[in-house]
Amino acid sequence: MHPAVQISRLQCLPPSIRRFASPACARNSTLKEVERAMEYIQEHRAELSNSQHNAFLPVFFHHLDPAKIPSPGSLDSMDVRTSETISCALISLAAIAHMHQLPRAVGVSLWPRVWPWTHFIITHRDRLPAPPPQPTFETDFVRLIGQFHDHPDGWELISSTPGFRCFVAQIWKIGPVIQEPYRELMFSDLSGFIADLGVREPKNLDEFVQGAGGDVKDLAALIVQYMRSIPLKSPSSRIVPGGLATEVFRLFTFIVEADQHPGDDVKWLGTPFGPFFEALVRAHGAIETVLELMHTLIGSYAPHTDSAKALKIGLSFITRLLISPWGYASLEPALEAGILKVIVSCATLSCSSMVYLSSRYLLRVGIPLGLVRRSFYELEDATATAEFRHSKIFEDWEIFVKLARGRIEILDDEQFEEPWKACDNLKCGNFDAKQEFKRCSRCKSFYYCSSECQKTDWQSGGHRTACKSYGNLIMHESMPGSSLGTRERDYLRSLLRHDYIANIEKICAEQIKAMSANRSAVLLTVFDYCFFDLQLEVHSATDSALAADLRERSEAEYNNLVARSKASEGTLQLHVIRIMVASVRRDFVIPLRTADSEMYDTMKKLAAQGSYDADGEEFLGLLEVAVDTTIHS
């Protein structure tokens, strides 16, 4: 037993004070004597030293004897003595919570008494004659845990107690109903030990989830609620030692632990989400709130402090989200909340290499350039500084800017151009505005200019046998595993069209080269947008690794596309656009339609010759036809 809780400790008090403490500590002390001791402490708090205040600890330790906890059955017909015993315990819990600078090791002696009484009270609160007011009881408990946390032995004892995390989560839930400044005090006390709750262990996380409401979505909502509760305008006003940065760092650490961080930040970026992290990234407002905190941390940044650590975790969190299966849907709110500004700001700070790696990854892979228009132009002044030009990511940023400008122009042009389609009846090939066509209601992938063309393709074009298989390779609104909306799909077709025209000479040359080996071959022309520079490739549609991959994804659909291309006699080519969707490389087939076979016939002729003049009339004529008579349908 710690000396601070022994009755002999009362001898440290002057006789004038001891006369209030000793009767309250007697074997048969009454509720009035305990109340008198508590009243003396409250009335003379300013006069008592910490040592004198804490010398009352044996009184309250005595009244938290677990042997005095009433049986649940006795609560229905409670006598006066039982009622007074409960009241003395409530007074004692509140008194200990408000003591300052308790001896560090005293928690080992106090906890075996504090927790049984606390558990009894929260379990039977509604049956008590004078239940403790909410949230005072809860905030006092959190304050007390904050004092015990600093001692390793005491914290080990507390954190190994079944039900402890469940109650902490229940306390967390009532945060919104607590009035200031008590809410700030409660969250500040909570942040002192939240990072050390051991939620990396599944059983500990499960217990915390139960207290939050029983589902990981409930815990995710609590996290977002907590982040929103942190005042952002005056970070220096935080009560937590170290201010806002320390509080945010501890909260972010809790998130990392709950997500089973593998111990390597780079590996963490690509590690599959656990149920908690999935719920968190899908919680309403999560990404915007994290970014808001990061903007504030940047404003009060100092190297080698908790602000630097919190920024590192925060940027890793955002990167992990944006390259996830839910990342694409989060991009617009992330850009609205200033993700690019965070990247630029972090680049000029003395942050860890992880910030550099996350920023670089986002610039190269994570942010589709078609979505950056407004955020991009807002950063022109910030990126023109000498400090940023000397940062590690400046070279990546320059490439990003160059591509972004081009993609924004394409996006702007696309908004003023009506999308075109070609009738999917190969015997027709009519070109017209997309709105003039009727779409197959079953596969949602094929368009026809008339019911007659639809019937023809159904009966003799092969659509009858392949219709139900479509939707995995050709982009449309219902394709599985994709978050690409109509706007994104139209943009990608416009991007493909733009780069097809810009690179037509190289594309035709590569296709002729492939056809020279097999003049009847069906080709796959790949436009790879996974990284900064567009990569162009030409593959066989029948015996290449890409063909095998596409066939494995949707065999019937792919075989029908190849058969249609072959039957078109050169009026349908198969183009593949390769992009990153949710950090995964995805290939989508976008057919290239031509009004007639002139382009195909010319390429076959040049391929048969074995060589051709790149400046010759035939090749230049081929390029002109390719530009003027084709659309990506």
UniProtKB/TrEMBL annotation:
Pathway: Cofactor biosynthesis; tocopherol biosynthesis
Keyword Transmembrane helix: yes
Entry's Gene Ontology molecular function annotations: phytol kinase activity; zinc ion binding
Sequence ranges assigned to domain MYND-type in this UniProt record: 425-467
Alphabetically ordered keywords of this record: Chloroplast, Kinase, Membrane, Metal-binding, Plastid, Transferase, Transit peptide, Transmembrane, Transmembrane helix, Zinc, Zinc-finger
Enzyme class, spelled out: transferase
Compartments it resides in: Membrane; Plastid, Chloroplast
Xref: InterPro entries: Phytol/farnesol_kinase, Znf_MYND
Entry EC number(s): 2.7.1.182
Methyltransferase recorded as keyword: no
Catalysis performed (reactions): phytol + CTP = phytyl phosphate + CDP + H(+)
PROSITE patterns: ZF_MYND_2
Principal localisation: membrane
Gene3D superfamilies listed in its UniProt record: 6.10.140.2220
GO CC terms: membrane
Entry superkingdom: Eukaryota
Membrane topology, from the record: Multi-pass membrane protein
Family listed: Belongs to the polyprenol kinase family.
Name listed for the protein in its UniProt record: phytol kinase
Organism: Favolaschia claudopus
